[in-house]
């Protein structure tokens, strides 16, 4: 029997999905037991709390420990000789197994999403207290800088999930000073919800004045928002599964090296908080609306030209100036992203999904897919839907 001590409250959508993946592996192999000790944020750095954890671990005979801890208390736990997996919070810890994430890549994905919509004003709302917020901000701002843009930044001193220390009036004043329209990326859905709440009492229209994007796709928080929040979906459940699998290996052979489980962003769940575009050219705006409202991008360039009563040469010139790529490339990328989303949300065979989305040439579809996602459609579905491979990728072109 393998005994695992869990030091997390599992109240967030992220933590619950992580636990689901962890439990899935434990049920496959069988004969695992769990002991849960929910730690508060204050307990992360409390020596007395950790000594209590150690006492329980030793009396219960724990084989492994997983949870959120400070660097100091992580070192104390390591000293008792039990394998520890850290769900990193403030910082990563060297020399120990970490459940971490491609936080930087998540920020890049957010930037790419807003850039595709034509925005030229950007903002970030997060906290300087956590590594995942700091690196999401860095990825977001670095990607914007690559195309000559910058972001307005507002950071809380601590995570507002654990009781808000936010000065709402200061946040409100900051939001009111942002130019319209602005695309705002929040470090997670809790912070994104705070933004839409403050906008609601500040006469700031979402998404017309401020488009808002969060992270974690916490369906309760996203649908509590008015309007509902768009959010980046993370590969959390598969990360929990892989963490349990590797932890099992280390428990059986303590000579094995420590590991990092990197949880990647998969896709963006689009809701009303990011509807619309920041495009002044009416021709381009009309084309974008047609592409993204016509059955997963199943509209030909000829039909777009006919509906807009414009020549291909004129539309192409306007489109490249506003969006930076050809209209053909935009349609191809958009349809490929719709296909990728269907791979994860539908149980149909891959070929059936392709035909449903109007693809007649599967070979060219696969080439386009590999260009964007660095793997085949089959590999993508196996990894992100079924967790059947350990390949790590960064699909940040959505």
Task: Summarize this entry quickly.
Pfam families: HTH_18 (PF12833), Peripla_BP_3 (PF13377). By secondary structure, this protein is α/β, with parallel strands linked by helices. The protein has helices at 13-29, 47-60, 71-78, 103-116, 131-146, 168-177, 189-200, 219-224, 236-252, 282-293, 301-308, 312-323, 327-345, 350-356, 362-373, 377-386, and strands at 2-7, 32-36, 64-67, 84-87, 97-101, 122-127, 151-156, 182-186, 210-215, 230-234, 260-263, 265-269.
Give a description of the structure:
- This protein has 398 residues and is α/β, with parallel strands linked by helices.
- It has 3 domains: 2-102 and 236-266, 3-Layer(aba) Sandwich (Rossmann fold); 103-233 and 268-274, Rossmann fold, CATH 3.40.50; 282-386, Arc Repressor Mutant, subunit A (Orthogonal Bundle).
- Helix content is 49%, strand content 15%.
- The protein has 16 helices and 12 strands.
- It has helices at 13-29, 47-60, 71-78, 103-116, 131-146, 168-177, 189-200, 219-224, 236-252, 282-293, 301-308, 312-323, 327-345, 350-356, 362-373, 377-386; strands spanning 2-7, 32-36, 64-67, 84-87, 97-101, 122-127, 151-156, 182-186, 210-215, 230-234, 260-263, 265-269.
- Strands 2-1-3-4-5-11 form a 6-stranded parallel β-sheet, with helices on both faces. The protein has a 6-stranded mixed β-sheet with strand order 7-6-8-9-10-12, sandwiched between helices.
- α4 crosses α5.
- The chain is globular and about 75 Å long.
- Keywords: DNA-binding, Transcription, Transcription regulation.
- This is HTH araC/xylS-type domain-containing protein.
- Residues 285-383 form the HTH araC/xylS-type domain.
């Amino acid at each position: 029997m393998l005994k695992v001590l869990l030091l997390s409250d599992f109240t967030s959508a992220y933590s619950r999905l992580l636990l689901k993946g962890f439990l899935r592996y434990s049920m496959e192999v069988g004969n695992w037991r769990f002991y849960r000790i929910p730690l508060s944020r204050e307990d992360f750095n409390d020596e007395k709390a950790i000594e209590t954890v150690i006492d329980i671990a030793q009396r219960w005979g724990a084989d492994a420990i997983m949870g959120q801890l400070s660097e100091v208390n992580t070192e104390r736990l390591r000293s008792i000789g039990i394998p520890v997996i850290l769900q990193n919070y403030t910082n990563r810890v060297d020399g120990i197994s970490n459940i971490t994430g491609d936080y930087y890549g998540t920020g890049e994905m957010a930037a790419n999403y807003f850039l595709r919509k034509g925005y030229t004003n950007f903002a970030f709302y997060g906290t300087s207290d956590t590594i995942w917020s700091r690196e999401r901000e860095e990825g977001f701002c670095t990607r914007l800088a690559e195309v000559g843009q910058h972001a307005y930044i507002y950071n809380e001193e601590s995570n507002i999930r654990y009781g808000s220390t936010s000065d709402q009036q200061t946040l409100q004043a900051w939001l009111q000073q942002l130019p319209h329209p602005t695309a705002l990326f929040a470090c997670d859905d809790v912070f994104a919800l705070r933004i839409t709440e403050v906008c609601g009492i500040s006469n700031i229209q979402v998404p017309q004045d401020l488009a808002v994007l969060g992270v974690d796709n916490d369906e309760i928080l996203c649908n509590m928002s008015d309007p509902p929040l768009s959010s980046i979906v993370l590969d959390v459940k598969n990360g929990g599964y892989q963490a349990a699998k590797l932890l099992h290996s280390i428990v059986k052979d303590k000579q094995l090296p420590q590991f990092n489980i990197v949880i990647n962003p998969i896709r963006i769940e689009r809701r009303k908080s990011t509807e619309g575009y920041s495009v002044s050219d009416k021709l381009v705006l009309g084309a974008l609306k047609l592409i993204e409202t016509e059955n997963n991008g199943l509209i030909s360039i000829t039909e777009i030209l006919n509906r807009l009563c414009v020549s291909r040469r004129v539309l192409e010139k306007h489109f490249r100036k506003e969006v930076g790529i050809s209209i053909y490339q935009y349609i191809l990328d958009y349809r490929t992203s719709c296909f990728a989303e269907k791979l994860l949300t539908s149980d149909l065979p891959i070929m059936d999904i392709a035909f449903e989305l109007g693809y007649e040439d599967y070979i060219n579809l696969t080439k386009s897919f590999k260009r964007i996602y660095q793997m085949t459609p089959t590999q993508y579905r196996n990894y992100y839907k079924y967790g059947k491979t350990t390949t790590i990728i960064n699909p940040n072109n959505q």
